[in-house]
Structures are given as structure tokens and as C-alpha cells.
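User: Please fill in residues for this 389-position structure.
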């Protein structure tokens, strides 16, 4: 089949590589640098499986900036463009998705359109009505940054928001490309599939917030957080996973998805969804106050990445924490080897690790991923108890 994937972030590129094992895939993006790297079989994002597959697998994959070549022969178009949350409208900015839909209608109106971007509940049905189309399908993604292709190769589940032939076709396409043969498949209505995505991410955010609040209690009352978490997690109904305290949930998905679901609840009584959103801000404020009370002059931040194995700073919890410290007139310096400039988003970047250690009175670390700070453990402030997640 001729498959076009629009957007080459974690979702788009992992799907493009996944399908290019057995089908002709065209990856469309607006960034020339990304397109060049993909055509050179180099990954523009940090993902070990994507890097390996681009380098070693015989993939029928071409990246392009040209809409005509991307759409004109497409049987299926996967939309994987970003949908940032607009705080003023209380709604995802779905303009990039709608632009792709219009382009497909112009270039190849009979192509099946599969939306992988996260969208508000009811969006797909609205698009079908707006454009008088029946060939728009929503299929939620459940991918981790840095492990996106792995999660596509070993999916926990495949969900497609269409109960007919198109839904079966898309689910078969994803299942045949995966390495696991017994992956659960669920076909639903489109709106129910959209709800699955947002409710799943809100549950994960709730779990993060829960263990963070457990950790806040331990911090205030001088308890050993890890012991309490281990004891709680031995209950098989709770489980010993996704329970590592942090500076707050962050990244591209959870912050915006929690806010969007809360907006979707405007006509429905609720308390938990609102609490999930507020809990994350409360956690960051509590940790900022904890650091401020230490009376330090200069706070060093070791890495801005959202989590280990990621190259993404977007909505990283540590970034929000730093802004709170700056607002309290604390001097902040940052060591982030991925940034090749002295000032980034208002932060002073130091590329000399030894100088960074020397000038920092306290070093905040969201995830203790290596031994680079082993000589300054007395300066470290982190809530990472498992060195994972």
C-alpha cells in the first residue's frame, strides 16, 4: 500500500518506520532538516529502535517537503501533527490536523485519513460532518518518548475508532507490522476511541500525582519515601510500576491531555479530573518552596530533559520548577549538553560540568540517570527513588 505519514515527531516517525517494513511510505514534514536526516537514514529524534531500524532495515521510506508527492498516490494518510493545548480557548489547537484533512481532500479525496494526533472528544465526528466525509478514522497512540518504535512493535493494545471495514483495515495494518502476535485489538466508535486516549492519560497523570503527593508527605514528615512506596506497591491491585516520584508529570502528552479532558467535563460533575490538574501545580510549588527554604543563592539544574532516554524539554517539570525559583529571585544555572548556547528560554546555560558543580549551591535532578554527579552527592536534591521512569 502507499502510506503517507504527516509529521515526523515520535508518533509520526515511529509509524513511518513501522509501516515502511512492508509498505511504501512517504513521510511529510515542514522542517527541511528533519527530511534530510530521514533520507540519510538518520533519526532526528532520540529513539534507539528508530535509529537502529533506519540504519539496518530495508525500509521503503522517503521523506519530503512536497505535499503533492506525499498525497497524490496515498491510499492511507496518517496524521501525526502536534495539537498543543490553547489555554484561552480551553481546547486543543487542531489547526494542523484540519489543514492536513483539507490537503488530502484536495490531492487525494478517496484516501483513508487516520488521525493519530491527540484530539478533543467528538472531534472526528465533527470533521466528518464539516467535510461530508466518511473516510476519517481516529486511532489513539500509546507511545513513550524515546521508546515510540518499540511500543509500536510491541503494542499493549491497538484501538481504532471505526466499527466497519476501515477500522478492520487499519487495525490489521498495525497488527501485521508489530512483532507481538497476540496484541489485543479493540474497534470502537470514533468518539469512544478519543475518550479512551484522554482517560488513559489522565489515569497515568493521576498515578504520578498520587505518588508525588505521597512523597511530599514523606518529605514533610521525615519519612523514607521509598519504603512507603514499596509497601504500598506490594498490593497487587496497585502494583510496583509507574510509582517513582518526580518534580511533576510533564512531557508533551499528560499536561495538555489532562487540561483538555477537564474542559470536556464542562457539563459533567467532577472533582478528580480537576484535582489531577491542580495537583501537578501544587507539587511544583511545594518543591520550589522546599528548595527556597534551604536558603541557597544559586540553584543548578542538571539536565532539562523530561525523563531519562528523552531529548525533549517541552513541558518538562523541571523547567516549571526553575521558573518558580527565578520568580523567587533565586539565581538559576543549567547544565544541558544538548543546548549549544549560553541562554535558553531565559536560563543561563553552563557547558562546563565542573564549573556547573562548583557554582551550584544545590543541584536539582529530576532523574539520576548516570554517575556524573557522584562527587557532589551532598549538593543533590532529587525525588527519584528508583532511578527509572
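Assistant: Residues filled in for all 389 positions:
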Amino acid at each position: 500500500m502507499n502510506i503517507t505519514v504527516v509529521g515526523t515527531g515520535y508518533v509520526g516517525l515511529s509509524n513511518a518506520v513501522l509501516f515502511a517494513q512492508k509498505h511504501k511510505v512517504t513521510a511529510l514534514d515542514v522542517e527541511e532538516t528533519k527530511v534530510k536526516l530521514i533520507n540519510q537514514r538518520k533519526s532526528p529524534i532520540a529513539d534507539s529502535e528508530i535509529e537502529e531500524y533506519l540504519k539496518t532495515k530495508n525500509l521503503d521510506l522517503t521523506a519530503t517537503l512536497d505535499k503533492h508527492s506525499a498525497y497524490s498516490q496515498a491510499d492511507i494518510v496518517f496524521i501525526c501533527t502536534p495539537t498543543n493545548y490553547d489555554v484561552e480557548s480551553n481546547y486543543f489547537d487542531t489547526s494542523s490536523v484540519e489543514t492536513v484533512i483539507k490537503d488530502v481532500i484536495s490531492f487525494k479525496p478517496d484516501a483513508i485519513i487516520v488521525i493519530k494526533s491527540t484530539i478533543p472528544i467528538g472531534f472526528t465526528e465533527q470533521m466528518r460532518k464539516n467535510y461530508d466525509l466518511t473516510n476519517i478514522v481516529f486511532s489513539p497512540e500509546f507511545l513513550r518518548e524515546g521508546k515510540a518504535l518499540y511500543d509500536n512493535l510491541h503494542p499493549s493494545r491497538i484501538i481504532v475508532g471505526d466499527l466497519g471495514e476501515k477500522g478492520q483495515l487499519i487495525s490489521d495494518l498495525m497488527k501485521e507490522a508489530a512483532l507481538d502476535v497476540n496484541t489485543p485489538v479493540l474497534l470502537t466508535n470514533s468518539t469512544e476511541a478519543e475518550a479512551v486516549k484522554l482517560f488513559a492519560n489522565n489515569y497515568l497523570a493521576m498515578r504520578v500525582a498520587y505518588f508525588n503527593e505521597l512523597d511530599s508527605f514523606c518529605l514533610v514528615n521525615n519519612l523514607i519515601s521509598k519504603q512507603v512506596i514499596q509497601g504500598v506497591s506490594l498490593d497487587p491491585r496497585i502494583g510496583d510500576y509507574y510509582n517513582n516520584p518526580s518534580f511533576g508529570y510533564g512531557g508533551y502528552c499528560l499536561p495538555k491531555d489532562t487540561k483538555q479532558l477537564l474542559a470536556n467535563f464542562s457539563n459533567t460533575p467532577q472533582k478528580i479530573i480537576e484535582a489531577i490538574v491542580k495537583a501537578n501545580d501544587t507539587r511544583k510549588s511545594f518543591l520550589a518552596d522546599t528548595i527556597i527554604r534551604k536558603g541557597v543563592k544559586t540553584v543548578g539544574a542538571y539536565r532539562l530533559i523530561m525523563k531519562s532516554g528523552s531529548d525533549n524539554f517541552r513541558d518538562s517539570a523541571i523547567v516549571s520548577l526553575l521558573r518558580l525559583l527565578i520568580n523567587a529571585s533565586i539565581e538559576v544555572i543549567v547544565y544541558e549538553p544538548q543546548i549549544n548556547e549560553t541562554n535558553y528560554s531565559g536560563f543561563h546555560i553552563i557547558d562546563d560540568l565542573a564549573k556547573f558543580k562548583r557554582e551550584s549551591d544545590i543541584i536539582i535532578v529530576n532523574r539520576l540517570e548516570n554517575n556524573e554527579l557522584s562527587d557532589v552527592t551532598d549538593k543533590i536534591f532529587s525525588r527519584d527513588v528508583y532511578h527509572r521512569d
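For context: The chain has a mean pLDDT of 94.
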